[in-house]
Amino acid sequence: MGKSSKDKRDAYYRLAKEQGWRARSAFKLLQLDEEFNLFEDVTRVVDLCAAPGSWSQVLSRVLIKNEQFGRCAWEDREAKFRQRMLNVIPSEPTTQEESQQQEQKDAEMGNIPEESGDRPDVKIVSIDLQPISPLPGVITLRADITHPATVPLLLKALDPCYDPETSTSQQAQHPVDLVISDGAPDVTGLHDLDIYVQSQLLFAALNLALCVLKPGGKFVAKIFRGRNVDLLYAQLKVFFEKVYVAKPRSSRASSVEAFIVCINFQPPEGFKASLEEPLGVGSRLSELQEQQQDPISQAEPPKAGDDGITEVILEDVSGSDNKNRWIAPFIACGDLSAFDSDASYKLAADHVSLPPVQPPTAPPYKRAIELRRQNGGAYGKSPNRCTQ
Ligand code: SAM
């Protein structure tokens, strides 16, 4: 598929390139923030499964406001973006030259990119298996979030004085306001397997979050909604006052993807987070749930947003073990007049397809391409190939 046809098929892919985001996922986080005000009073954030880094870009722009362009230029671009979404006007391509002109205009008007924002002590740590190209104000780590060794790495990145020899994760301070995770495995197409592997990533993210979140903190993570997802919602309710499942408009309606948004971290009394003894389905979680009151009786009825655009849908709960199941309010977020991520849009006749903002640094297919080249290409000299 050509770049131009992908531009047409996926409005958010095109907008991401125009606005300088490394991936279209940036819009998911922005739309979640629109609904849940995720960044309010937040200065210390951990971004899990962060490559290529569009969520970290959002954090850098919102918390530090020093990435690529000043705040005024950014707001101006936002306004233009909203205008286009409301009127569904085909976009004008933004060239590098135009960006530079905008930056110069901002500088003349005194809108110089700030070295640091108005939030003190901002700390953003981003982790992925893949390398993440540097971003201003973001500490990037290449690590596996399912591995226990990642906790001390993360704690050290958050606090350079942290000494893993003398401290344990339990003793370390819990300094983080928000943990976000967009973790996804390489999708196999085998529905149940994909959902299972994704749930393992989600539990790894939750376990890491429990080690670093401070009371009152927030946790946002991608989920693939499967059959027993209500068990997971009930388990999250053990740790957080409010748990929602949200679907941003930029996430394709046809995809099982959604995001859990957990607000106000309240660890049960005496709970000690540890990656040596992680939580997972059927383990310590059930005991913790037993200790708590029935979460169903604590559940708040879901409310529609004040803007009248929020849909609230209750998911069906079936199965006998209803004590450990809980229905999380389902919230569709993002302006309903925004682009539909499943639709194709007509491009302007003079539309120019822009190159990706950040080409993959170490794509898994890179080695395969190298090997194929060594073999003289797809129809090359490999003895195993049929050259007829
Ligand atoms: N939020 C990112 C952004 O905005 O650019 C996109 C994340 S992408 C959908 C999913 C990422 O999960 C991939 O970069 C993948 O390398 C990462 N991932 C999968 N398993 C992981 C693991 N065990 N540890 C760390 N990262 C993992």
UniProtKB/TrEMBL annotation:
Q: Does the keyword Lipid metabolism apply?
A: no
- HAMAP family xrefs: RNA_methyltr_E, RNA_methyltr_E_TRM7
Give the region (Disordered) as residue ranges.
90-120, 286-305, 353-388
Protein's cellular compartments? Cytoplasm
Q: Which UniProt keywords apply?
A: Cytoplasm, Methyltransferase, S-adenosyl-L-methionine, Transferase, tRNA processing
Family annotation (InterPro entries): RNA_methyltr_E_TRM7 (IPR028590), RNA_methyltr_RlmE (IPR050082), RNA_MeTrfase_FtsJ_dom (IPR002877), rRNA-MeTfrase_E (IPR015507), SAM-dependent_MTases_sf (IPR029063)
Polar residues compositional bias, start-end: 286-296
Composition bias of kind Low complexity appears in 90-102
Q: Which domain of life is it from?
A: Eukaryota
Q: Which GO terms describe its biological process?
A: cytoplasmic translation; tRNA nucleoside ribose methylation
Q: Name it.
A: Putative tRNA (cytidine(32)/guanosine(34)-2'-O)-methyltransferase
Write out the GO cellular component annotations: cytoplasm
- Provide the E.C. number(s) assigned to this enzyme: 2.1.1.205
